Sequence to fold (348 residues):
Amino acid sequence: MRAYTYLERGVFRMTQKPRPVLRAPRDAVVRVTLASICTSDVHIRNGAVPRAVPGITVGHEFVGVVEETGSAVTHVKKGDRVAVNVETYCGTCFFCRHGWVNNCSDPNGGWALGCRIDGGLAEYARIPFADTNLVPIPDGVTDEQALFTGDLLSTGYWAAKIAHIRKGDTVLLIGAGPTGYCTALCALLHSPARLIVCEIDPVRRAFFARRFPNAEVLPPEDALPLLARTPRGGADAVIEAAGSAESFRLAWQGARPNANVVLVAMYETPQILPLPDMYGKNLTFKTGGVDGCDCSAVMRLIAEGRLDATPLITHTFSFSDIERAFSLFAQKKDGVMKVAVRMDEDIP
Fold:
């Protein structure tokens, strides 16, 4: 089968690999029907994800159809349409039992797909722990609607949850890219009074403002004066989804005292926490990768029409055109937000 493969730093290439097989009773094999490219894939190519293994098939945003299941799989069956979780967590270790599935202690646990084990930019993918990591797609929900369930929407849902957004709060969201978009959708589920969105790119500001008419969308340099005029002198909750030194600084500067600052961006360079400058603000920082254990809740919200991330799909390619899709996405050309990659060709 064809598989888009990480060969070495700076090099991804379409290769031929054997079709995956079941390796454990809790495995499933999924025929991929629609996939996407994530900024994390770009980070892998750039060498910014040290644990990424050369030779792996990349990709962790995808949906498909179950082809085979292991003997211990009970929640999905052959022929089911499914969304795939970015994290293949065991569900039984200490971290999984506490809901910290990104830190699953199994060798195949946490973010493994497309990083440490073969992922979904391929015609087929093996999914460990299928019962916890495959979410059935309800009738009436399209592949496009379900595509971002396992990563972007799960990240937004998790970020809004751990930010402890309350009704009437002021929320500062930094970054109006795909992660920021999905985070905004999920933050609004908590009924904040104000959503202030900072984005450096005017094209993305315009894209966001058209779809969130009640949000205040502005360039980063305008944020601090606006936040200083809020009743509590800053945002009650901050979610940083941009991933630069400037956005990191704005995150803590824009927070009111005793606020929650959630960092969901992936940084390519270390960031410095200037403790003397922020002394007395008593901020709570929450960092790291998504704990993607709410995919079922996300899917229900999609089916109910309360979460719709399909406007993010600005470009669609066939799998045979993956190189052009990746180049467009990585270079942020042509107003791209997300690309959908269709496995249109016949699969033997």
